[in-house]
Amino acid sequence: MKVKSGRTAESHAAIQELVDFLEQFGEIAEEQESVFRVNGQETMLVLFSSFAYFQQKG
Fold it and tell me: Is this model's pTM higher than 0.85 or not?
């Protein structure tokens, strides 16, 4: 699934990477920006921390 969320190219890429990972656990739907539903049941709010993302990426 291609996400719409992300205010910058970096945040969009990070959120897309997360959604790609989560898809192995079920169907992901983007309810609104940064709010995702997993398998029609669990709802999650996704926030982007550039410091944490770039620290993890190296």
Answer: no
